[in-house]
Amino acid sequence: MGLPEPQVGEKFTTAAGRKWGQIVAVDPGNQLTGRIMGVFMSYVLVPQDHDTTRLLLKLVMRTNRWVASGSRSAI
């Protein structure tokens, strides 16, 4: 597609004209992990049967127990 491969340390998103987030780990074609405002996001490509691929996203952040208990009840 002509896009350069992402590199650790690069910014990876922009909002309101300001660059946010930083790539903290990358394995081209397999996974990318970035951090925005203290939240880590890992995107992983998982091959499936019949020439398909599944995209998984995992979010990790620090929180207090009140916020965590509220988020569990909302799921």
Give your account of this protein's structure.
The chain is mainly beta and 75 residues long. It has one helix spanning 65-74; strands at residues 13-15, 18-20, 22-27, 31-36, 39-47, 53-60. It has a 4-stranded antiparallel sheet with strand order 3-4-5-6, with no helix packed on it. It starts with 12 loop residues before the first strand and ends with a helix. The model has no long low-confidence stretch (mean pLDDT 83).
Highlighted features:
6 strands, 75 residues, 1 helix, mainly beta, two-stranded antiparallel ribbon, 4-stranded antiparallel β-sheet
Provide the fold topology.
Blueprint: E1 13-15, E2 18-20, E3 22-27, E4 31-36, E5 39-47, E6 53-60, H1 65-74
Antiparallel strand pairs: 1-2, 3-4, 4-5, 5-6
Rounded to an integer in angstroms, the radius of gyration calculated over CA atoms is 15 Å
Q: Taking all residues together, what is the mean pLDDT?
A: 83
Q: Biggest sheet, open or closed, and with what strands and sense?
A: 4 strands, antiparallel
Number of helical elements? 1
Give the end-to-end Cα distance, rounded to a whole number of Å. Answer: 37 Å
Q: Tell how many strands the DSSP assignment holds.
A: 6
Enumerate the spans where pLDDT stays under 50 for 5 or more consecutive residues.
none
Alpha-beta content class: mainly beta
Principal-axes shape call: globular
Beta-strand portion reads over 45%
Helix content: 10-25%
What is the ordering of alpha helices and beta strands?
EEEEEEH
